[in-house]
Specification:
Layout (H helix, E strand, L loop, with lengths): L20 E4 L1 H10 L4 E7 L4 H14 L3 E4 L1 H8 L7 E5 L7 H6 L6 E6 L4 H13 L4 E5 L7 H6 L9 E4 L2 H10 L3 E5 L16 E5 L8 H4 L4 E3 L12 H21 L6
Parallel strand pairs: 2-3, 5-6, 5-9, 6-7, 8-9, 8-10
Antiparallel strand pairs: 1-4, 2-4
Length: about 270
């Protein structure tokens, strides 16, 4: 079992969430503008962007008080050092985390929380946030030495980071214990779990704990969870990537709740 301990650690990734992060590409820039939560400091748009899209960018920017600066494709490429900008580039301010108390108190009767214990790779974090937003997570809590929520994560999430509520916790052990006292079942994702997710009743208030890419969920956090769940595998590879595994587990929660008559929409 992992000897790492995270329960008393501060969320050290918080200090790296500084302004000056860049995003480029139409989807992530548009989603950031549409959500209107994450401050945009500067915004450039190419004259080659279609008129309909450019008009939406200008309208949303005006509502947010953001100046749209014209630029040619080469100057945008030079700033972001990528050819994948699709004619749009923005510089972000600091990510607007929700307060933990505000997040928890705003939940409904049967919340679904996602607790991330020191997920360090920004690609993984972005993909996890995309899954969380699509599959109905009420809020995400990051803890430990996590990747900063920045432009890299925004791009990896295809803009979903703008729509999912994210808070920070300096004491994941304490948070797990509090959630359990409040009637929330707290289950940790683990490759060692003997019980597959599909065999577990996931219909009630639930918090899913996902751990670090290398070490999984810390030992002290595991010790206070209600149990561990895993994913049945058929192949020889040891385990799934943390972002893929999180998506599978969240889908199972969503599937059970839909099968129980709580929804019918499909993602397109």
């Amino acid at each position: 079992m992992d000897g790492r301990s995270s329960g008393g650690k501060s969320s050290t990734g918080a200090g790296r969430n500084r302004p000056g992060q860049w995003i480029w590409g139409r989807r992530v820039v548009l989603e950031t503008l549409r959500a209107g939560r994450w401050p945009i400091r500067d915004l450039w748009i190419s004259e080659r962007v279609e008129a309909e899209v450019a008009d939406e960018v200008r309208r949303l920017s005006e509502e947010l008080g953001v100046e749209v600066q014209p630029a040619d494709a080469e100057s945008i490429r030079a700033r972001c050092r990528s050819d994948q900008h699709q004619g749009m580039l923005a510089r972000l301010g600091e990510y607007p985390f929700r307060g933990l108390e505000e997040l928890l108190e705003g939940a409904g009767e049967r919340p679904l929380w996602l607790l991330l214990d020191a997920v360090q790779d920004p690609h993984n974090l972005g993909a996890i946030l995309r899954c969380a937003e699509i599959l109905g997570v009420d809020g995400v809590v990051v803890s430990g030495d996590h990747a900063p929520i920045n432009g890299h994560v925004a791009r990896s999430s295809a803009g979903a980071a703008n729509h999912v509520l994210i808070a920070r916790s300096e004491n994941l052990v304490g948070l797990v214990m509090r959630l359990r006292r409040d009637g929330v079942a707290v289950l940790a994702s683990s490759t060692r779990a003997s019980e597959p997710a599909r065999s577990r009743d996931l219909l009630g208030p639930l918090a899913l704990v996902v751990g670090n890419e290398g070490h999984g969920v810390a030992r002290d956090v595991l010790e206070v969870c209600d149990g561990e769940i895993g994913i049945e595998q058929s192949g020889r590879t040891e385990s799934l990537n943390v972002a893929v595994a999180t998506g599978v587990l969240l889908y199972e929660v969503d599937r059970q709740r839909r099968d129980a008559g709580d929804g019918s929409a499909c993602s397109s």
